[in-house]
Amino acid sequence: KSASSNNFIKTIVAEDLAAGRVTEVVTRFPPEPNGYLHIGHAKSICLNFELADEFKGRTNLRFDDTNPVKEDVEYVESIKRDVQWLGFEWDGLFFASDYFGQMYDKALLLIRKGLAYVDDQSVDQIRENRGTLTEPGVESPYRNRSVEENLDLFERMRKGEFANGEKVLRAKIDMASPNVNLRDPVIYRIVHAHHHNTGDAWCIYPMYAFAHPLEDAIEGVTHSICTLEFEDQRPFYDWVVEHCETEAKPRQYEFNRLNLTNTVMSKRKLKQLVDEKVVDGWDDPRMPTISGLRRKGYTPEAIRAFCREIGVAKSYGVVDERMLEHFIREDLKLKAPRTMAVLRPLKVVITNYPEGETEWLEAENNSENEEMGTRRIPFSREIYIEQDDFMEVPPPKYFRLFPGNEVRLKHAYFIKCEEVVKNDAGEVVELRCTYDPETKSGSGFSGRKVKGTIHWVEASQAVPATFRLYEPLIRDEDEGEDSSFLERINPNSLETLEGFVEPGMKDAAGQDKFQFFRHGYFNVDPKDSAPGRPVFNRIVSLKSSFEV
Ligand code: ATP
Ligand code: MG
Ligand code: MG
Predict the structure, then answer these.
(1) 217: part of which helix (H) or strand (E)?
(2) Which of 46, 153, 475, 527 has CB 3.0 to 4.6 Å from 118, enough for a Cys bridge?
(3) Which ligand is nearest to the CA of 208?
(4) CATH superfamily of 337-462
(5) Interface TM-score (ipTM) > 0.90
(6) 30-66 pLDDT, tens per residue?
(7) Cα 350 to the center of its chain, rounded Å
């Protein structure tokens, strides 16, 4: 299906342009800088930027930083990096906090129009008096203060005369409205806290629902796209735009947020995983953050293709995480060199191969993409193979190595297992094999066939490497009635192995990606790798039963 067939907002934009309701599309991506972005945010980023791109409009990156307590410049920087890495360029870079003055003026305007009042009730009282879906709310005893008194009190709130929670400013709408959000919502509160951008200039801060439509209006945003939870807020969004007499008249549209199986998707929860050191930072490859996916080895292309495929709708759903994996396989299939790595090494001595000799074999870099050329790999008397490519007592249909059996070494020769060497504990520590020089790969040998092909790395020049294999950090199936996500943490989410790669990969640099024969796609970890000592994160295994 085409991208446009699964994006209803695109249809709206096209109609708005055709009808002349807007002359240019302006969207924005408005993260709160209180954590790192996750794959859910990627969906919103792709939606907003691609929509504007398609209609030759503009997209702003706007930090929705109206809550001083949780926000931090570290998050601001990480968000910029992640949006750029995904491949998008913002037109304007803005901070909602830069509009505090204008928002304050709009609050004054509402007070003067008799549409806002200072309430002395506590937050708890206000919540209690809001009513329910079936019961109307109770009007505050302070609701009918005069404009003068409200102006005076609001000014004194701004000057810092009151403590946190002592007073709030509320919109005066309708305590009996069937939409609870219209029952005199709080629009300003007192927070004596240092703000990452405005410092100590303010001790009153606008509430999100009041600030957001003003931010959109100030920037001339035409289509303000948010997730479905905000649908009930739309009447208040429109109320603010109307009564604050903004010049631009932005409109809000809602779409379904992305949920993935086996994944928690909330900055608050992800922050908890970081703070409690369940993971090694926001960019731990097990995290669904954009930085974690990048470090795991995901590419921007794969993430964008995934976002396009899942589409934009109004219905709630959970996307199978294997669909994301499908897109990274597709992206790397023809791009990543296919090399050999031994993750759990077992030494093999080829007894009839001349001692001290090395030959260089030609190996194709990608059997599905000839343009990637070939490389040369060494072969000699001692190699490493995978431990589980040998079984002393093979089950039926086991075609790899066992005593007396012959297999093909990828890119090399047939070898036959002649002898098994064990340590005192009875563990297999080495195999003694013979090879047949007639069977060299590419020689056209057809004398006999073998059923198994295994991979290997020549021992004397092998590069020691660390491999990290991942499982989901959180597992849905462990979900209990009242278990928090912290109780669903998979204790086996990370397995670390020490093995070897081909010598040509000695200088693999951070973020280089490979397909290791039979093991899947791996990324060179940009933080933990050292020169000559790479660490590989497994991005995804080779096959999945999942079909898009
Ligand atoms: P979280 O609950 O994870 O902190 P948020 O919505 O509070 O998410 P914001 O920083 O406010 O995070 O989000 C910025 C934008 O990203 C918003 O427009 C929001 O709708 C969108 N967004 C957040 N999570 C998702 C998601 N899972 N799927 C799609 N869009 C999302
Ligand atoms: Mg949030
Ligand atoms: Mg939010």
Answers:
(1) helix 208-219
(2) 153
(3) 3
(4) Ribosomal Protein L25; Chain P (2.40.240.10)
(5) yes
(6) 999 999 999 999 999 999 999 999 999 999 999 999 9
(7) 46
Of 462, 454, 459, 453, the C-alpha closest to 504 is 462
Where in the chain are the domains? 3-255, 337-462
Answer yes or no: are the C-beta atoms of 399 and 407 closer than 8 Å: yes
Percent of the chain scoring above 90 in pLDDT: 93
Q: Parallel, antiparallel, or unpaired: how do β-strands 58-63 and 26-29 relate?
A: parallel
CA of 31 to the centre of ligand 1 (A): 7
Which atom of ligand 1 approaches the CA of 43 most closely?
Answer: 29
CA of 35 to the centre of ligand 2 (A): 9
- Ligand 2 centroid–CA 32 distance in Å is 6
Is the CB of residue 40 below 6 angstroms from any atom belonging to ligand 1?
yes
pLDDT over 70 (residue 4): no
* Whether domain 3-255 has CATH 3.90.190.20: no
- 488 phi, psi to nearest 5 deg: -105, 15
Among protein residues, the one whose CA lies closest to atom 18 of ligand 1: 226
Which residue pairs from 269-272 have beta carbons closer than 8 angstroms and sit at least 24 positions apart in sequence?
269/485, 270/35, 270/36, 270/38, 271/34, 271/35, 272/486
